[in-house]
Amino acid sequence: MLSLLVLVLLLGVLLLVCKCGHREAGLPPGPSTLPFIGNLHIFPTQHIHKFTEWAHKYGGIYSLKIGPTTAIVLSDPSIVKDLMERRSATSSDRPRMHIGDVIHGGLNIAFISGGDTWRTLRRAAHAVLKRPSAALHIPIQQAEAIQLLNDMLNAPEAFYSHVDRYSNSVILSVVYGKRAPRKDTPELVAFFQVLHDWLSILEPGAAPPVDLIPALKLIPDRWAKWKRTARRIRQAQRRLLFGLLEAVEDRVSRGRENGSFVEQVLAKQTELRLDREMTAYLAGALVEGGSETTSAYLNSFILCLVAFPEAQRKAQDEMDRVVGKDRLPTLDDLHHLSYVRAIILETHRFRPNVPLFIPHAFSASEKVGEYIIPSGSTVFVNAWGILHDPVFYDDPEAFVPERFLLTTNGTKPALESPTIPSPNLTFRVGRRSCPGIHLAQNAININVMNLIWAFDFQPDVHADGSPIQPDISVSAYTKGIMSTPLPFKCTITPRSLNKADIIRREFEEAASVFDKFE
């Protein structure tokens, strides 16, 4: 009798193991699974363009099994709009990420699961960063952009580093009212170190799969290096965030406000229902996100100017006609620069900063056509696949700004409709839209116009003087959620001596703006 009971139990366990990782009936199709692990052995951790290859094979919605959990990948913009916008009430959650909760205390607006805390943070961010409020930060964005021009004029070979400094300094200025005038500014160095450590612990193999196997959380600290590392990152991050917060509080107490985001939040803390912890982590998340995305975009933009000289020439010709050669462009000029606007949009489409969105999670089951998306499923929006889909774009692997002169979204003219993709897709998807979109767009627009107006960007050269063609392939970009060009070389020269003199003069005049943020 006992032997029979043991046999039944063993068969039951075997059945569960065999079913674990198996694609349940009703799920969208996808790659073949293995018992227990499902598709874990082939799940892309770096080369995320594999998601687009599978979309070509399995369609605009397909599924992957990661052990017992289900992942849904969306590469069809009409399904994205339906699920992530029309049904955002159930699609706006995040998968649980224990390590992130340890480091951020469950207060990082980008990764936090849905609920009252996330809704409070979201309301606060949108209240303070809406378009009219974002316009208040244009003076410091313009001043920082002028320093970028001046830095590139003086040391063009270090442009990549200058762009990184710019993107971090401008978001530090906007959020905390404290800029980073040099690459070695302590706050800038600390932010990049914390961000590097945070991203490193998320890399595959750096920590055990505690979200799939919760029992791993019980391992004592002395045998779990990842726990000790996570705590060290948390402590370093808290020192940085609360140090910056205290600096703002001190400035406010002395009547030295400069209009920063944190100042506005502190003034409305009761109204926004934010405590000090929430304020610190909300501000930190905005700096983390704003630094990386802006620098990734601008370095991609420069790479595209080098790789596609005809597009650069057309943009410069338009800039000279509209703005002239005796002043820097302003945001008011952009309305009259149709080709420059087209280049901005085509750079977003051609090399999106976030080719695969931070995953969402469904808080309730949903149905899409004949398919079921179970409650708790992880959902990925494949922005790269959408923005490179030949169904929507002629020659999608080519850099063609002219496509945005033909149609608003750059798609084939016959396909213009509410469900076609937008090049700004990486900013907007349902309730998880980027709260700093207006800040980011202003920063991008200002710098794109300035760089086109000021400089010629040409390929680096071999010893014999022949040009070195820049690598614009996906292999020349970082792997992972954030995609940015790997450091590359190019030749940057001012378009005239007069323009160089204007840059130097404008930089001297920007000192009056910088004074409030030093």
TrEMBL record:
The keyword Coiled coil does not apply. Pathway: Secondary metabolite biosynthesis. GO terms for molecular function: heme binding; iron ion binding; monooxygenase activity; oxidoreductase activity, acting on paired donors, with incorporation or reduction of molecular oxygen. GO terms for cellular component: membrane. Its cofactor is heme. Keywords: Glycoprotein, Heme, Iron, Membrane, Metal-binding, Monooxygenase, Oxidoreductase, Signal, Transmembrane, Transmembrane helix. It is a single-pass membrane protein. CDD domains: CYP64-like. It comes from the Eukaryota. Heme binds at C434. The keyword Lipid metabolism does not apply. Residues 1-20 form the signal peptide. Pfam families: p450. It is found in: Membrane. Belongs to the cytochrome P450 family. This is Cytochrome P450. It comes from Roridomyces roridus.
